[in-house]
Structure formats: C-alpha cells, structure tokens
Amino acid sequence: MTIFARRARASAGRMHPELSLVSYTLLGHLEERGGCRATDLAAHYALDKSTVSRQVAALERAGLIERRLDPEDHRVQVLHLTDAGREILAQVTRSRRAAFRERLADWPEEDLVRFAAYLERYNAGPGGADPD
Fold first, then answer.
1. Is the pLDDT of residue 129 over 60?
2. Is the pTM of this model over 0.85?
3. 49: CB partners within 8 A, 6+ apart
4. What are the start-end ranges of the H helices in 1-132?
5. Res 42: pLDDT
6. Nearby residues of 30 by Cβ (< 8 Å), 6 or more positions away
C-alpha cells in the first residue's frame, strides 16, 4: 500500500508541477460536486482547515480554481474549477488511465476480474467507501 501511495504522489507531480496528490484529489472532488466550500473539503477528507487552505491557495494561484459567491448565501464562497483546472484534471486523469492500462496490459482476464473484486472489497470496508 505504501508503494501504491508513493507512485500515486509521484505520478500526480509528473503530470503538473503544482498538482500534488492532495491537489488532484481536491480538484476531482470539486468537479464531482460541481463546487463546494473549503470547509466542506476539509470535513470530507478529514483534513485540517489550514492544510486545505494552503492547497486551495496554491490551486488559486495556479489558476485551476476560483471562488464564487454562493447564490443562496452571499456570505459563503464556493470553490469551482476554472476551465484550466478542468483541462489539467482531464489530462492527469487520461495519463493515469493510460498508465494503469499499460501496467495491467499483460494480466490475464481472470486476474483483472479478481483484482477488481479485491479493490471493491477493500473500498467497501470500514472507512473505505465514500460516505456521499
């Protein structure tokens, strides 16, 4: 698992110099949700607010996200991907998928099916599934 995590961190950095694994994850969440508050990101990923704040600031400086006023509550700022953020996320996603395909290309179908079942089982375990 440690090697898997190291590879994921390294591949995110190779795709875009400003895009750490945490940044990539946050961008993915913002895309999936259509935007959210920084406090929602911190709560969802059980991260300290200051950690999320630093990540958000870096993503804003890179032009990958922007803040917009919540139309229902103008006191609240909602984070959204910019067009550049969507493109970087799409590039990284394509690169990661290509890397997975290459790495798994020689695996027999039965191994791929078993591997997928193990991943599903692992993700369904305590703390593994996305609560939303």
1. no
2. no
3. 38, 39, 42
4. 2-15, 21-33, 38-45, 49-61, 83-104, 109-124
5. 94
6. 36, 41, 65, 79, 80, 81, 85
Q: Tokens standing for 30?
A: 């913002």
Give the pair of three-digit tokens for residue 39. Answer: 């406090």
For residue 132, what pLDDT band results from cuts at 50, 70 and 90?
Answer: very low
Residue 123, both tokens:
């993700």
Q: List 66's β-bridge partners, or say none.
A: 80
Residue 119 in tokens: 């991943």
Q: Which long-range contacts (CB under 8 A, 24 or more apart) does 90-98 make?
A: 91/15, 91/16, 92/12, 92/15, 92/16, 92/19, 92/24, 95/11, 95/15, 96/11, 96/15
Q: Which helix (H) or strand (E) holds 74?
A: strand 73-81
